[in-house]
Write a structure and sequence with these properties.
318 residues, alpha+beta, Double-stranded beta-helix, TauD-like_sf, GlaH, iron
C-alpha cells in the first residue's frame, strides 16, 4: 500500500519490518518548515501551558494538511493495523525538536495522560549498563516482556507513543510487538473462565511509579466488537494458584508466539500503537559498558467524538 497526499508532503506505506504497521515518510522540506514554525517555543513553555501543545499540533496541521491528522487517527482505529511509525527524517538531532514533534503528533490524536513517573504529560527514561530501579523497564540485559500500558492507573489509555531520543553503543534492544490478532492462543485465553476475572493492578510498592492506589479490572474486554486486553505481569496481583497459573501461561504463550516480532526504531523516530490490541516489550541489549539509550513516552486518550476540529489555517503569532 502506497498513499500520497495531494501536496506530496508525506507518503504512507506498509512498514518494512511489520506488515500491520504503517510508516509515514515526511518530505524533508515540510519537516524543515515545521521546525522553523515552532523553533521559538521552549520545552518549559510546552510543559507549563497545556494549550501550547495544541498550538504545536496546529502548526503540524498547517504544514501537512488536515488529511494527515485524519489518516493517523484512521490507522490507529483500524483493527487490521492500529499502529504507525513516523519521524523527522534526520533533519535535526535536537531532543527539544523531537519532543515538540511527538507532542504535535499526539495532539492530533487526543490528549496525553499525566505521567505519574515524571510528573508531566510525557516521561523520559534511560537504559544503560547499570541499573538501580525497581522495575524491569531500565534493566538492559534482559528481555522486557510484553505488556500494555497504563493498566495500574485509574484513567483510560487508548494509545501509547514511544520515541527514541538518544542511543550509543547499542546492539539489540529492538522493540518487541504483538498484535492480538496474530496471537495463536487469543481465542483460548479470552474464552477462559478467568478471562473476565477482576484482578488487582497495583504499583504502589514501586517508588519509581509514583502511584499510591490500586485499580481493579479484567484481563480481557470487548471494544468495537473485538477482543481487547490489558496485561502487565509486574503489577498484576493474583490471589490464588489458579489465577497465577493462568497469568503465567498467558505470558509464556505470548512471549513464544510467532506473532511477536522485533522492529528497530531509529533515533528521532517514534511509534504509536493502539493500546487496546497491541502489546509491546523490548529485546535484551548486548552487554557494553558505554550503552546508553533514552526514550520518551506519551500515552493518552482519543479525542472525544464531537470535539471541535482544528481549523485548516490558524493565524501565526506576531
Amino acid at each position: 500500500m502506497t498513499h500520497f497526499n495531494m501536496i506530496e508532503s508525506y507518503e504512507i506505506n506498509v512498514h518494512s519490518q511489520h506488515k500491520r504497521l504503517r510508516h509515514i515518510e515526511l518530505s524533508n522540506q515540510a519537516v524543515k518548515q515545521f521546525l522553523q514554525a515552532v523553533e521559538h517555543m521552549t520545552i518549559e513553555r510546552i510543559e507549563y501551558v497545556p494549550f501550547e501543545r495544541f498550538y504545536l499540533s496546529a502548526r503540524l496541521q498547517e504544514i501537512f494538511g488536515s488529511a494527515l491528522r485524519q489518516e493517523l487517527r484512521d490507522i490507529l482505529h483500524d483493527r487490521s493495523s492500529g499502529g504507525f511509525t513516523i519521524g523527522l527524517e534526520e533533519q535535526t538531532d535536537c531532543i527539544d525538536d523531537y519532543i515538540k514533534f511527538a507532542t504535535a503528533v499526539t495532539h492530533h490524536l487526543g490528549v496525553p495522560n499525566h505521567d505519574a513517573m515524571s510528573g508531566k504529560f510525557y516521561a523520559r527514561f534511560a537504559v544503560q549498563q547499570t541499573d538501580d530501579s525497581d522495575t524491569y523497564l531500565r534493566q538492559a540485559f534482559r528481555v522486557l516482556e510484553l505488556h500494555t500500558d497504563g493498566i495500574f492507573v485509574d484513567e483510560p489509555t487508548d494509545w501509547i507513543l514511544m520515541m527514541k531520543l538518544v542511543e550509543h553503543n547499542a546492539a539489540g534492544g529492538e522493540s518487541r510487538l504483538l498484535h492480538l490478532d496474530d496471537w495463536e492462543d487469543l481465542a483460548r485465553f479470552s474464552a477462559h473462565p478467568l478471562a473476565s476475572h477482576i484482578y488487582k493492578y497495583d504499583y504502589s510498592d514501586r517508588g519509581s511509579k509514583n502511584v499510591s492506589s490500586a485499580v481493579h479490572n479484567p484481563t480481557f474486554y470487548q471494544r468495537d466488537n473485538a477482543v481487547c486486553m490489558r496485561y502487565n505481569h509486574q503489577c498484576t496481583h493474583p490471589q490464588n494458584i489458579e489465577e497465577a497459573i493462568y497469568l503465567k501461561e498467558i505470558q509464556e504463550s505470548m512471549e513464544n508466539s510467532a506473532g511477536t516480532l522485533p522492529i528497530r526504531l531509529p533515533v528521532g523516530q517514534l511509534v504509536v500503537l493502539n493500546n487496546h490490541f497491541w502489546l509491546h516489550g523490548r529485546e535484551a541489549f548486548a552487554p557494553h559498558a558505554g550503552l546508553y539509550r533514552e526514550l520518551m513516552r506519551q500515552r493518552g486518550v482519543f479525542e472525544s467524538v464531537g470535539a471541535a476540529a482544528l481549523q485548516e489555517v490558524i493565524p501565526r503569532e506576531h
